[in-house]
Amino acid sequence: MALLPDYETQDDELMIVLILGAGDLASGVALRLSRCGFQPVMTELAQPLMVRRLVSFGEAVYRGAFRVEGVPAQRAGDAAHALALVKQGIIPVLVDPHVEQCRALAALTEEERLPVLVDARMTKSPPTLSLDDAELLIGLGPGFCAGETCHAVVETQRGHMLGRVIWQGTAMEDTGVPESVQDYSRERVLRAMADGELRALAEIGDHLEPGQPVAEIGGQVVHAPFGGVLRGLIHSGLYVRQGMKIGDLDPRDDPLYCTLASDKSLAIGGGVLEAILSRPQLRARLGA
């Protein structure tokens, strides 16, 4: 399904977009941008707690290399390695929790600063970035204020505003309530019942019956609250805390949804693309 170029990118064609975070929403953004001629570079934690792993480029942190909808990603050792991967049409994923590679990437491309930086970490708290870190700094969802802590915010809450670009002000506050799918809302999200190391008892893509074991944490078992497909589950062996989201059960019962980027992530990616192309100086660099 990927629309990747079959040639190596030349230096004068580079349009680096640094995306902080490589979970499912960030990966939907990267998919949209890579298919439109941009070169995403992504960052992640050393042990990402991704739930929807099969649609997250951050899975490359664990596997070394990974594909989402046919688009390849690879773990990069440093900024120079990331740039080499970009030229091969591969999305680099840097373990860089403190965003230390930002200036190194800019220097390697002979830029004073990166053209575009997207904060897709979804921390829902005030960011630590500066407007001077990129020509265009885009924040996803709550925690950002366009015109103050970033240049533009893209709305991440489902509804009429999803994917819209906000140039002044903030995104809607986080409700803490998951979207409803076939009348299931909070119960779709599987949460840890205790602190401890997670041991998976099911695999992403499995059909689960009501009450079937999904994972064991600290001696307590998380069961499927209804029948459906396990759409997401964090890696076995990771330490989690009580109440943390560890899985996603989909009542639509279609395993295909486990390997396709969500409509939400692609809508957000469309908003990021709009924000970038609204800047004439950035548009010109693509020859548009």
What features would you describe in this structure?
The protein has 288 residues and is of the alpha/beta class. The chain has two domains: 11-175 and 263-285, Rossmann fold (3-Layer(aba) Sandwich); 186-251, OB fold (Dihydrolipoamide Acetyltransferase, E2P). It contains six helices and 19 strands. The strands form four sheets. It has a nine-stranded mixed β-sheet with strand order 3-4-5-2-1-6-7-9-10, sandwiched between helices. A four-stranded antiparallel β-sheet has the order 12-19-17-14, with no helix packed on it. A hairpin with a 2-residue loop joins β15 and β16. α1 (24-34) packs across α5 and α3 (79-86) crosses α4 (102-108). The protein is globular. The chain starts with 15 loop residues before the first strand and ends with a helix.
